[in-house]
Design brief:
With 237 residues, the chain is α/β, with parallel strands linked by helices. The chain has a single domain, classed as Vaccinia Virus protein VP39 (Rossmann fold). It has a seven-stranded mixed sheet, with helices on both faces. Strand 2, helix 3 and strand 3 form a beta-alpha-beta unit. Helix 1 crosses helix 3. It is globular, with a radius of gyration of 17 Å. The protein starts with 25 loop residues before the first helix and ends in a 6-residue tail after the last strand.
Length: 237
């Protein structure tokens, strides 16, 4: 199969759902004001993002999490992979504040944050620059009229295919059966991605910690699916 040519042009900002929950406590507001400016990724029109340059020291690879929620998975990966530069996308300020608390408490230096529509960042990342991507428990938008809001979509997959290195891994998880079917339909049928051989959709790997969303689903009796795909080589050997 041939890869689709090109990727969609950058879209205007489209964010659904809340950007803020309950009012931040004074300590959280102080942390956001003090720590966030040094970690925040700002896009400049006409200037592509240089991922490695976001970090103060040389990194072995760049990993990206889209929609990190409270940040527990991102913090876990950053602590256990200090040589990896971690980029987290999350517009929900309360989740950002929780992650900032973890970053300060654990002195994590290899995380950078993008607090806007992740698709804006994807459009500015260079080709062949990301070694692993996580999309864990995204909002399923279960109503049919809202399916267009789902982050797993043809335009987003095209951007992921462009920015991922050959052999890079795409990890996704959901507890929603309808969204699982949607993901399988979009990713299994995509010419650029292939499911990792031997991957167990019913279980996480040892280097994939649980999130609060997974625990919440389990408490409600919902099973979660864990999906792993790799990016096919651009030029087959």
């Amino acid at each position: 199969m041939r890869e689709r040519s090109g990727t969609p042009a950058p879209r205007r900002r489209i964010l659904y759902g809340r950007r803020r929950g309950r009012r931040l406590r004074s300590g959280q507001r102080e942390l956001v004001g003090r720590l966030l400016p040094a970690l925040d990724i700002r896009l400049t029109p006409g200037e592509p993002v240089a991922p490695a340059a976001l970090f103060p020291s040389e990194v072995d690879d760049i990993w990206l999490e889209i929609g990190f929620g409270g940040g527990e998975h991102l913090a876990w990966q950053a602590c256990r992979n200090p040589g990896i530069g971690m980029i987290g996308c999350e517009p929900f300020v309360n989740g950002v504040a929780r992650l900032l608390a973890e970053i300060e408490a654990r002195n994590i230096g290899n995380i950078r944050l993008f607090r806007d529509d992740a698709r804006l960042l994807l459009a500015e990342l260079p080709e062949d620059s990301i070694g692993r991507i996580f999309i864990l428990f995204p909002d399923p938008w279960p109503k049919a009229r809202h399916h267009k809001r789902r982050i797993v979509s043809e335009p987003v997959l095209s951007h992921l295919a462009r920015i991922m290195r050959d052999g890079a891994e795409l990890r996704m998880a959901t507890d929603d059966p309808g969204y699982l079917e949607w993901i399988l339909d979009h990713v299994d049928g995509h010419e650029v991605f292939t499911e990792v051989s031997g991957a167990d959709r019913g279980n996480r790997t040892a280097d994939w910690p649980p999130t609060r969303y997974e625990r919440k689903a389990a408490a409600a009796g919902r099973a979660s699916a864990f999906l792993r795909y790799s990016r096919r080589p651009r030029r087959p050997s």
